[in-house]
Design a protein that fits this description.
Order of helices and strands: HEHHHHHHHHHHHHHHEHHHHHHHHHHH
Number of strands: 2
Strand content: under 5%
Radius of gyration: 30 Å
Pfam families: TPR_11
InterPro entries: TPR-like_helical_dom_sf (IPR011990), TPR_rpt (IPR019734), WaaL-like (IPR051533)
Structural class: mainly alpha
Largest sheet: 2 strands, antiparallel
Mean pLDDT: 88
Keywords: Membrane, TPR repeat, Transmembrane, Transmembrane helix
Helix content: 55-70%
Low-confidence stretches: 655-668
Oligomer: single chain
């Protein structure tokens, strides 16, 4: 699973890993029943064995039933398929089968850490700028596992399992096992220290100290094994950090994935549970909670324009999306897990590995956030741990019941297959549309993607943009034919229908849908009747769903500016500046709005701020330098006029009284653009 990466789907991570879990869970359940049909009876642990595992499903069902978007809560959505009730049920099935089938924890652990290690090796390719076969050049922080935090969490588990296994291998003198775990330990430890995810490294250090203090690991006693490995690790890490060797190796700068901080995660979840106290807003809807309650403090960070689908960890996710009831179920689930950890720890060294894995997974999920692979591994381990506790077993020997269960599980596989066909076909066509440079081919591929998955917002938003792009290009022709005009009108009509469907039917709570609607009417300014009004209404609705977005306020101000409604434009641009005072485009547009509204002195101040914010090299700075001269002349003229008016006023005042100064309140790196710079459809069409 850590290696699973399907390049022909647009969503290469979430989709494929989620559907792999879904299929594996149902296939394993079917095989379990088929095997027991052959034996003419099925032996399963009593229901109490699955109580802890069932709590997440119970919380998920309640959240889905009262969800603000039941489809997303049930099936997931583009880029976030794992945040769904389907996935929680699949986890429970995996735990159930693991509890009733003899599984080897050692073998399963080896498969996991081998997958993580191979994924880490490919991540080294990316770090050194080496082309990955079948994929090509990728960013330095690329990983088959997903985000950098996902990989770091998997590496923390892998390093600690390998470390513990090395101690046992050294005692048993198992050379093959020693070599395997040594390789795993070195590869993952080096990458962790090079990438330097502080929380992941902290987990490894703290758990290692515990293992040594609890006499579970003896570094001194096994110095023939650990001393050479530690030396190799520090040597390789030094090579990656030393400037000369770093340059020779071509080590790229490593950038960690953006992550919502703890404070902002709490603020969003607290606001969400205030409005949806008992069952939350619904599984998979955190991104809509985030935009609605997004703290303005994020505008001062590099992630100011990111819309997060996950908070810092799942505690905040369950609080926001499943409410107090869901959070209680989630917390109680972990109470059962922690009880298992202490129980297994008391049982001696033979079961200590189970306790160690559960503890490290718990720490990783709490400190490094949601991790699909770790959740699957967790439920497998919980199933295995259930076998190590005393539970009663009940037997079902009625063949009719066994056949019914087998047929039901096979039926679920068929239904999942139909669903997967629709989803994967849409993903494949959408991916093809992203790879082609031909606009007409892109249009056809996206249209086919929508035919297979018509309720996916991402496809429809991008398809709308493609419609507008083609219509804009066709409208630029010197003499468009009647056929061209008819096609342009059809494309425009199709764009309007799509954005109305997005905002009124598919998902009215998705700010991106309203933003797209605003962009469509924005492009139709001067062509469609009342387009400017519709655009401002759409952006206003978008702002209601994400009031702290500087970009949305900038877009709204641009609509007002184009209408020559300078006062409203100034207010919108000023709000954008207030939310993010280092946003050059907001200051730039505010400068022009102030100038055109008759406030050249304030306009000059805003343009001077732009000059300080943008790089001094490049076309934008040259453009600003020229504009500053024009604005300076206008400001000088205004100051001279004000001075003259003040002099005349002073001459008419009684002796000893000074004229009061009129102090104007100043309203609180991307290419600088004004509204009229944006491509629009030719009004002559």
């Amino acid at each position: 699973m850590p290696l699973l990466f399907v390049p022909f789907t647009a969503d290469a991570f979430s989709l494929n890993k989620t559907y792999l879990v879904l299929f594996v869970s149902l296939i394993s359940l079917s095989l379990f029943f088929v095997d027991n049909i052959n034996r003419k009876r099925v032996h399963v642990l009593n229901l109490g064995s699955y109580l802890g595992m069932s709590l997440l499903v119970i919380g998920g069902i309640a959240s889905t039933y009262f969800s603000t978007n039941k489809r997303i809560s049930l099936f997931g959505s583009y880029g976030n398929y794992e945040s769904s009730l389907y996935f929680l049920i699949a986890l429970f099935i995996i735990g159930f089968v693991s509890a009733n089938v003899k599984l080897s924890l050692s073998k399963i652990s080896k498969f996991l850490i081998a997958g993580v290690t191979f994924s880490t090796l490919f991540s080294f390719f990316a770090l050194y700028g080496i082309t990955i076969p079948g994929i090509g050049l990728v960013p330095a922080s690329f990983s088959f596992a997903g985000s950098t935090n996902v990989l770091a969490a998997l590496q923390a588990v892998t390093v600690l399992v390998a470390l513990y296994a090395l101690g046992n291998s050294a005692k048993s003198k198992n050379i093959k096992s020693e070599l395997f775990y040594s390789f795993v330990f070195v590869v993952n430890a080096v990458y962790m220290l090079v990438a330097l995810n502080v929380l992941a490294v902290g987990i490894v250090v703290i758990v290692t100290i515990y293992l040594i203090s609890a006499s579970k690991l003896k570094l001194v006693g096994d110095k023939n094994v650990f001393v050479p490995l530690i030396f190799i690790i520090f040597l390789l890490v030094f090579v990656n950090y030393f400037s000369v060797t770093r340059s020779l190796l071509g080590v790229e700068n490593y950038e960690h994935s953006f992550r919502l901080p703890v404070t902002e995660s709490w603020l969003v979840s607290a606001e969400s549970v205030r409005d949806f106290p008992f069952t939350g807003s619904g599984l998979g809807t955190y991104v809509f909670d985030f935009t609605r309650y997004r703290p303005a403090s994020l505008n001062a960070t590099p992630a100011w324009d990111v819309r997060f689908a996950y908070p810092f960890n799942d505690v905040f996710t369950w609080l926001a999306t499943a409410g107090l009831f869901g959070l209680f179920m989630y917390a109680t689930f972990w109470v059962f897990v922690v009880k298992d950890i202490f129980y297994l720890n008391r049982e001696g060294n033979k079961k200590f590995l189970l306790a160690l894995i559960l503890a490290v997974i718990f720490a990783s999920l709490m400190l490094l956030g949601f991790n699909l692979i770790l959740y699957v591994f967790l439920f497998i381990v919980l199933g295995i741990s259930a076998q190590n506790k005393e539970h009663s077993v009940f037997t079902v020997s009625d063949r009719n019941i066994l056949y019914a269960l087998g047929v039901a599980s096979l039926g679920l596989i068929v239904l999942l297959g139909i669903n997967a066909y629709q989803v994967y076909s849409a993903q494949n066509y959408f991916m093809k549309s992203l790879l082609t440079n031909n606009a007409l081919e892109r249009y056809e591929f996206q249209n086919m993607a929508l035919n297979h998955d018509p309720r996916e917002s991402v496809y429809r938003r991008v398809f709308t943009g493609t419609n507008l792009f083609i219509a804009t290009q066709m409208s630029q022709a010197e003499k468009p034919t009647e056929t061209d005009i008819a096609q342009i009108q059809q494309l425009i009509s199709q764009s309007i229908d799509n954005v109305r469907l997005l905002t009124e039917v598919i998902n009215p709570l998705d700010v991106a849908n309203w933003e797209t609607r605003g962009q469509v009417y924005d492009a139709l300014s001067g062509v469609a009747e009342n387009a400017d009004q519709f655009a401002s209404d759409a952006y206003t609705n978008a702002i209601n769903l994400e009031p702290t977005s500087p970009r949305l306020w900038l877009s709204l101000g641009s609509v007002y500016y184009r209408q020559k409604d300078y006062q409203n434009a100034i207010q919108a641009f000023a709000r954008s500046v207030q939310l993010k005072n280092d946003f050059p485009n907001a200051h730039y547009n505010l400068a022009y709005a102030l100038k055109d509204a008759g406030y050249p002195i304030d306009a000059l101040t805003q343009l001077e701020i732009v000059a300080r914010l943008i790089p001094t090299e490049g076309d934008d700075y040259k453009k600003i330098s020229e504009e500053l001269k024009v604005f300076q002349d206008l400001a000088d003229q205004a100051k001279a006029q004000q001075a003259e008016e003040a002099r005349k006023q002073a001459e008419g005042l009684p002796e000893g009284q000074n004229p009061s100064e009129v102090i104007r309140q100043e309203p609180p790196v991307e290419p600088l653009t004004l509204p009229e710079d944006a491509p629009v459809i030719n009004s002559n069409v």
